[in-house]
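agent> Task received from the user: take the single chain below, predict its 3D structure, and emit structure tokens. No templates, no multimer pairing.
agent> Plan: (1) validate residues, (2) run structure prediction, (3) serialize to tokens, (4) report one or two observations.
agent> Step 1 OK, no nonstandard residues flagged.
tool_call: predict_structure(input=
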Amino acid sequence: MENTDFVCIPGQRLYLADKQHISGCGTYERNGYIYSTLAGVVNVVKEERSSIIEVHSTKEQGIIPAPGDIVTAKVTIVTQRFCKCVIKCIGDTVLTRPYRAVVLKEDVRATEKNNVEMIKSFRPGDIILARVLPVTEVHTYHLSTAENELGVVMAYSDSGSAMVPVSWMEMQCPKTFIKEPRKVAKVVPEGF
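)
tool_result: status=success, residues=192
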């Protein structure tokens, strides 16, 4: 019986490389043996006639927001000049730890920047799509929702219902039919 799901270190010899054991993700083959390329947990994926040897890192996720990335964030505080957010995802990758971010009043829309009212664009609890701007402050990312595809993608009404967009600047509660102002993202279906 094979020993599976054990912890290894980089360079550790794991298995004999033969027809029954094939090198997979996080491993390499040398001189007839399979070795680990990183510290982590060995996982043996059994297939019909062989087993693929993989190593998955136990380290914390290494991905961080970079300028130009599209991120998903949750609005936490809204003031007259900015809103504070917590970045939850980068693209399709869910983060293991949140990152603090801010959307400044001038970065909400591409036009009519002076007429933007933050409370009419975002509310605490809203989920937004935003683009990461170049870093100017340590420990805080600056975000922009100035593109049509960026802005609020999910919001909840006072009654707790998920609101639906009715225009580029309003969302409506499906239960009470009350409309609330938001900077609504124009969500584009995949493949377009």
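agent> Step 4: summary for the user.
The CA atoms of residues 172 and 178 lie 6 Å apart.
agent> Done.
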